[in-house]
Each structure stands twice: as structure tokens, then as C-alpha cells.
């Protein structure tokens, strides 16, 4: 410390030097304190965006010494992975019973309308004409309508009139018309060395992809090992849509590039099914206008290519029940290019024209095996003639 006595003894130069030294010490000290505080404020937890590290140059020291302990996986906090919860699909049995109310709601005008007419005290010509109109309006088709009216006329004449008889006779004749003798079993049983292969076809928008997804759930509920083939390479979102359906129940989807060759994806999915020893491979195909010959021919190719490695056990044609007579025309054209083994009638919940079940079976001689009764994941049911007719008359 300089005393007032010593000050006069120092030269001006020495005095300036001492003042400068003291000033430098003060500046360095203050800066050090500020830096230390800032560092503390930047410790983890601060929400500052990360600053991109400048490339290290030759001679630069590494920021952390090499002996700093490396954080192990246990130490690092990882973001929590979303739990992959698989859904448990409803078993196929009893689905139609659950969906009966929905069917009754949409088809009420057909069943209950017929019943009301038949229960009249007097069945005159006008009433029979009304019965015919009700059936035709519900898309039963001209042939089956005339057949049914003929039978009802005879039986009502012989067995008498009245609400109770009318209901019983109508029920029996409708069931006969829907034909319970047709084999509606889905061929989804694995053979010794290969999975069952199901090809799903139809016009765009009828509900093919949705049906494949729903069907996968039906099969998973039966403990079957399923592989999905996304051979709809035409609609960009179809493969994603299918994959999402599969992931919900732990089913793998084989897919290819957008716009790729559907036949090669179908082939790959069957190959995968064989390798995984799957029970069933479900192949979704692109929707196509039945009027476009080239696209229709492509379907034949898809089937032939699959058959190089496995038999195709089911070709399910998906028909949108709301399209009425147009659905019938589609069915006819598809049946010409590929052997359809079963029909799926979708959107029966959205139309009163349930008579299409009868008409389309007649047209193709192929049974309706499944019906779609809503957009819900388990709203696809095996078709049962008796339950169907009961729902109409409820
Ligand atoms: N209400 C109702 N909607 C259904 C049913 N089945 C399918 N849909 C709906 O119909 C629409 C079309 O279904 P998709 O499965 O995409 O049809 P797609 O035939 O695969 O269509 P493309 O790939 O364009 O050929 C979707 O909105 C489905 O939710 C059903 O049974 N009832």
C-alpha cells in the first residue's frame, strides 16, 4: 500500500505505471466474475437453442478432456417410446347379432314394409303390386321378385291370412331366396407348406382396403398368423392405410414403391407369407373401373403371378351396396376376368337396398360371404341368411 509520504518520492512515470497495473487487475477480476456467472446460468435446463459448434481447427484443444467419463445408455434420458398396444379384435361369431340393430335400421323399409302389406286383411291386386314395388325398390331384382311374389301368393291363399302367418311365411320365403344352402365358408386354412391366399378385388371406393383391414382383424381374433400385401400401388395412401390397419393388430404389411408393379408386390407378399409360415396372406388390389379393359386384364396377371408360388384360395369381390344396379354390372365384368369365389357387400348400413344380396348372388351364382355394416374396425360380419332376414323383419 502506498503511503502519502512515499507518493512525493515517486517519479511521475512510476506513478502512472502503478495506476495502470491496478486498473488492469480490476478489469481482469471483474470480467472473470461475469463469465463465471454466465456459465452457471447456461447449465442444462436453460432453454437456449443449441449453438452449432464451429469446426475444430488444427491445434485447437478438445473442449472436454478425453478422460471425461462417457455417459452410458442408462445415464442418458431417452424420450419415452409410445407403448405399442395391440388391439384385441372382436371374434367373428356373434358380430351379425351385434350389428343386427344397424341392419334393421337400414333395411326396415324392406322387411317391415313387406310385413305390413302382407298382414292386411284383404290381399287385393293393388297390395300385391305394392309388394312387388317394395322388392324392386330394394334392389331384389325383377326375376327374384316375381318368384317370391308367386310363392307368397300361393302360400297365403292356402295357409290363410293374418299377421302371424304372414310373418312366418315371409320369413321362410325370404330365407329361401337368400339361399342358405350356399357354402359361405371363407377358405382361409393353411395348407401343408403354404398359407391360404385371399385376393380382394373391386371398383375403387367400394371399401376394399377397409375390408382387408377388417378381415385381418377377424383372422387375428381366430389366432391366425396373417400377412398383408399392399398391391394397390395406384392410390398413394392405400398402402399406408393398410399398414395402419395391420399395425393395430400386429400384422405385417408387404409393400412396394408407389406406382410399382402390383403383381410383383402380390408375389412378394405371398413369398413373405411362405417364409413366415403364415396362415393367410390377404392381398389388397387397386380399385379399377370395370370399363377399363387394360386395368381389368392386370387383375388376371396379378393372380397368375401369385400362382407361380401358391394357389389362390379366395377371390373376394367387394361391392358397395349403395351403388345398386351399377354394382351388379361391376360384378358381371369382374366375374368375366377372374374367378370370383365370394362376395363382400359393404355399406349395407347406409342403404335400404339390402335386396342386392339376393340379386348379386343370383347374377354370379357366388355367395355373399361377408357384409360391411359400418366404418368401425369390427363392423364386418360373416353373412348368415337367417340372421339377415330376421334383422329385416325385426
Ligand atoms: N358406412 C360404411 N362405410 C364403409 C364400409 N366399408 C368401407 N367404408 C368406407 O368406404 C370408404 C372407402 O373405403 P376404402 O377401403 O378406402 O375403399 P377402396 O375400395 O380401397 O378404395 P380404392 O383404393 O380407391 O379402390 C372409406 O371411407 C370407408 O370407411 C361399410 O361397411 N360401411
TrEMBL record:
State the Gene Ontology terms under molecular function: GTP binding; GTPase activity; signal recognition particle binding
Q: Which Pfam families is this protein grouped with?
A: SRP54, SRP54_N
The catalytic activity of this protein is classed by the Enzyme Commission as 3.6.5.4
Q: What class of enzyme is it?
A: hydrolase
Q: Where is the composition biased (Basic and acidic residues)?
A: 65-74
Q: Could you mention a single GO BP entry for this protein?
A: SRP-dependent cotranslational protein targeting to membrane
Give the span(s) annotated as Disordered.
Answer: 46-91
Topology of this chain in the membrane:
Peripheral membrane protein
Q: Which GO terms describe its cellular component?
A: cytoplasm; plasma membrane
Keyword Transmembrane helix in record = yes
Q: What subcellular locations does the record give?
A: Cell membrane; Cytoplasm
How does this polypeptide assemble, per the annotation? Part of the signal recognition particle protein translocation system, which is composed of SRP and FtsY.
UniProt-listed HAMAP family? FtsY
Q: What is the protein name for this chain?
A: Signal recognition particle receptor FtsY
Name of the gene encoding the protein in the UniProt record: ftsY
Amino acid at each position: 500500500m502506498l503511503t502519502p509520504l512515499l507518493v512525493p518520492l515517486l517519479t511521475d512515470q512510476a506513478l502512472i505505471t502503478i495506476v495502470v497495473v491496478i486498473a488492469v487487475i480490476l478489469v481482469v477480476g471483474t470480467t472473470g466474475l461475469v463469465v463465471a456467472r454466465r456459465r452457471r446460468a447456461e447449465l442444462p435446463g436453460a432453454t437456449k437453442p443449441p449453438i452449432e459448434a464451429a469446426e475444430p481447427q488444427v491445434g485447437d484443444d478438445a473442449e472436454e478432456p478425453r478422460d471425461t467419463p462417457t455417459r452410458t445408455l442408462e445415464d442418458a434420458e431417452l424420450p419415452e417410446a409410445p407403448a405399442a398396444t395391440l388391439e384385441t379384435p372382436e371374434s367373428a361369431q356373434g358380430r351379425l347379432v351385434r350389428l343386427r340393430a344397424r341392419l334393421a335400421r337400414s333395411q326396415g323399409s324392406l322387411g317391415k314394409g313387406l310385413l305390413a302389406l302382407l298382414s292386411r286383411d284383404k290381399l287385393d291386386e293393388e297390395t300385391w303390386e305394392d309388394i312387388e314395388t317394395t322388392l324392386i325398390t330394394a334392389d331384389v331384382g325383377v326375376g327374384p321378385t316375381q318368384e317370391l311374389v308367386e310363392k307368397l301368393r300361393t302360400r297365403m291363399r292356402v295357409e290363410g291370412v293374418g299377421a302371424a302367418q304372414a310373418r312366418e311365411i315371409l320369413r321362410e320365403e325370404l330365407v329361401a331366396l337368400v339361399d342358405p344352402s350356399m357354402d359361405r365358408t371363407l377358405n382361409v386354412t393353411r395348407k401343408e407348406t403354404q398359407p391360404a391366399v385371399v385376393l380382394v378385388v373391386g371398383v375403387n371406393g367400394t371399401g376394399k382396403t377397409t375390408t382387408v383391414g377388417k378381415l385381418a382383424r377377424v383372422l387375428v381374433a381366430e389366432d391366425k398368423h396373417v400377412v398383408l400385401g399392399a398391391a394397390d400401388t395406384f392410390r398413394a395412401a392405400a398402402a399406408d392405410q393398410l399398414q395402419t390397419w395391420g399395425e393395430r393388430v400386429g400384422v405385417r404389411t408387404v409393400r412396394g414403391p408407389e406406382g410399382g408393379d402390383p403383381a410383383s408386390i402380390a408375389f412378394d407378399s405371398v413369398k413373405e407369407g411362405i417364409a413366415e409360415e403364415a396362415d393367410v396372406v390377404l392381398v389388397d388390389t387397386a380399385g379399377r373401373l370395370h370399363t377399363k379393359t387394360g386395368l381389368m386384364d392386370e387383375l388376371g396377371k396379378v393372380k397368375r403371378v401369385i400362382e407361380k408360388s401358391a394357389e389362390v384360395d379366395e377371390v373376394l369381390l367387394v361391392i358397395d351396396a349403395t351403388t345398386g344396379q351399377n354394382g351388379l354390372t361391376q360384378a358381371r365384368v369382374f366375374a368375366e376376368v377372374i374367378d370370383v369365389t365370394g362376395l363382400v357387400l359393404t355399406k349395407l348400413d347406409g342403404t335400404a337396398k339390402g335386396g342386392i344380396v339376393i340379386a348379386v348372388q343370383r347374377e354370379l351364382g357366388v355367395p355373399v360371404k361377408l357384409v360391411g355394416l359400418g366404418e368401425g374396425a369390427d363392423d364386418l360380419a360373416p353373412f348368415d341368411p337367417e340372421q339377415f332376414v330376421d334383422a329385416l323383419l325385426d
